[in-house]
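I trust your eye. Have a critical look at both lines of this record:
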Amino acid sequence: MEKGGSQLLAHGGWLDQGGLVEVRRLTSSAAVRGTLSDDEDERSRRCVPFASCTNFFSSCFRVRRYAVLEHGVLSVFVDEKDGSRLKERVKLLGMQIEADLTQGVLAILPPEREGRSTGHTHRDAFRRGLALYFDSKMTCQEWYEALLVGTEYVFEKHYEIGAVLGSGAYAQVRLCKDRLSKQRFAVKTVKFSRGSASIPRELQNELAISLSVHHENIVELKDLFIDLENGQVHMVFEHARGGALKDYVSCDLPESAVKEVVRQILRGVQYLHRMKVCHRDLKLTNVLLDLDAPSADSDGKGHCELKLPSDLVKLIDFGLSKHSDMDALMMSCVGSPRFIAPEVIAGKPYTHSADLWSVGVITYTLLSGGLYPVTGESKEELFARLESRTIEPMEGDEWLLVSDAAKQFVGELLNFDPKERLSAEEALEHEWLASAPVAAEKPATDL
């Protein structure tokens, strides 16, 4: 295994500098983690559910071998002097799981051939498959249940597919419903080459960030299914029932409502930047509203009745995002033409400040009812106006009822000098946002 970089494993775990850093427990994977031994005398070694420690090596450094189970794949690692080495990986789909809970032993066996006996000793099980030993009956039971789930860990077995919410060249987002809880989610299915040995690097990056961020203003990844054989990944997210912010631009939202929407966007951006993540594609379609009280037949499309701040704003889509220190420079020219920062277009090194320009564009558009600060009939014309530092003035009928404080706020975000542009923290402290949140139709609740 290569050292010095983060690599996505098929089960959703992460290796960094050769050591397992963190594995997240997702809602329906029932993933657990513990020690693995090929010697029954070594059962006294530590065995804990993985959720009880975030750094395996800091608390379990005595373990020689260990296993990680998530998303229907069991990965076995060897703890060596210079780090951790992946020994083997078993896809559980179709496997048999045999258990002796009184002895704390589980065996993972290949599918039986027709007419063949299923009885085996533990030693025979290890030779034919994989044996796991535990010093706790409760932990053994927890692993047993999780392994059984993994043997049929296929997306369609756990979720019902619904209407299409959006689609692109390589991905499609659809409504889905958990077959057991009946709860609704949004599943993003990304396709790549069938039979690939690993997930494409760009998708690895998106999964890495989606798995690591947890904030009320960022859509939560709830479940994950990785199918290398068929070349697709199913990412199950919480369903934001109000649709995209773009659907509300023509609603003539009052300034007080725009203020609360922007405040929540900035809270999400502030969190991302503190987590050393630059979004790089903030735009109206990548901001969702999770309505506090949706109608019974809500189809995910936006409407103009907002109850802020009880309705939550959610940032989505980390396909172009990048892990980067706040003062580190990035070079890739990525983003959406109307929302991209001028320094990115110019091919200059840029920082997280580029995200704040995008927030400025979003704010400008919401306050004006659909206008953009930089106009053009083509991408080339838009870029040319950005390079010439030409912004449409905040004048005319659309701006008559907009406060001076709001205009000043937009101006400080749409600063062509990224060093002079407001940071997320500074924007949240700006006088326009410093006032109390907009009153809701019911008593406001803390975010």
Q: What stands out?
A: Residues 255-274 form the longest helix (20 residues). The chain has a mean pLDDT of 76. The CA atoms of residues 310 and 445 lie 6 Å apart. Residues 155-238 form a domain with the Phosphorylase Kinase; domain 1 fold (CATH 3.30.200.20).
